[in-house]
Amino acid sequence: MLIESLATRPDLLGPALELGDIGAEFMRHDPIADLTRATRLATRWPEYFLVLLEDGVPVARAVGVPLAFPTSERPELPDHGWDGAILWAFEDAVDGRAPTTLLALDVQVAVKHRGRGIAARALAALRTRAREHGLHRLVIPVRPTGKQYRPNETMADYLLRRRPDGYSADAWLRTHERVGGRFVKVAPFAMTITGALGQWEDWTGKVLRPGPNVVEGALAPVVANVEQDIGVYVEPNVWFEHCP
């Protein structure tokens, strides 16, 4: 399997994006995610936008951004998870601060190629790229794929679900465990999405009722306040660290 980056193969951006996206429509409306538009990442950090090819055809992508961690101001990974770490990366880029860590933003495998261990290869590719650029660790705010089927369960309780072999019952968490990833902590506020109730209906096809609402693709309920015409979704993720 060949691994290319957009630094040497910018023509792979389009095919890489065709491999899939993050899922539910509401996930596209996190304002922090606007910073990570693919064209922006391809321009600013093309060396960390990796594409895995099999017989010349893209089968997966693995995307990261560099940041400084740990520092005196950042002794721990942020509770705000994905959102918080993205802000760190862009602060460092603006301030000219030298990075020491690679943050994995996205690992996506084409649907017909899933279940073949390609996601693990993508993670290995990010670890190798971090090492090649003198970065000392790879950190990932993992979004457990099976949590959407248990949205009312706390992440702490969800993490207790294990298979008889000791690995996580969640497929994506299990992938990280199998390749040597180390659990760090839960990021309780990894992503926050707010919108008017009409927007949420457009995003989900569902009329939100007052209080918690379960919507397809969400890891936790969306809380609606009818009087204020607002729905708020706060998603927990799980921090893992991989040593390059």
Structure overview:
The longest helix is centred in the middle third of the chain and has 15 residues, at 81-95. The chain is globular and about 50 Å long. It is an alpha+beta fold. Strands 1, 2, 3, 4, 5, 6, 7, 8 and 9 form a 9-stranded mixed sheet that branches. The two termini are 20 Å apart. It is built from 7 helices and 9 strands. It has a single domain (2-191, 236-242), classed as Gcn5-related N-acetyltransferase (GNAT) (Aminopeptidase, 3-Layer(aba) Sandwich).
Number of domains: 1
Residue share in helix: 25-40%
Radius of gyration: 18 Å
- The H/E string reads EHHEEHEHEHHEHEEE
Q: What is the number of E strands? A: 9
Total DSSP helices:
7
The average pLDDT value, as a whole number, equals 95
Strand fraction band? Answer: 25-35%
CATH topology name, in short, is Aminopeptidase
Distance between the termini: 20 Å
CATH class categorisation: Alpha Beta
Low-pLDDT stretches? none
Shape, per Cα inertia axes: globular
List keywords for this structure.
single chain, about 240 residues, alpha+beta, globular, Acetyltransferase (GNAT) family protein
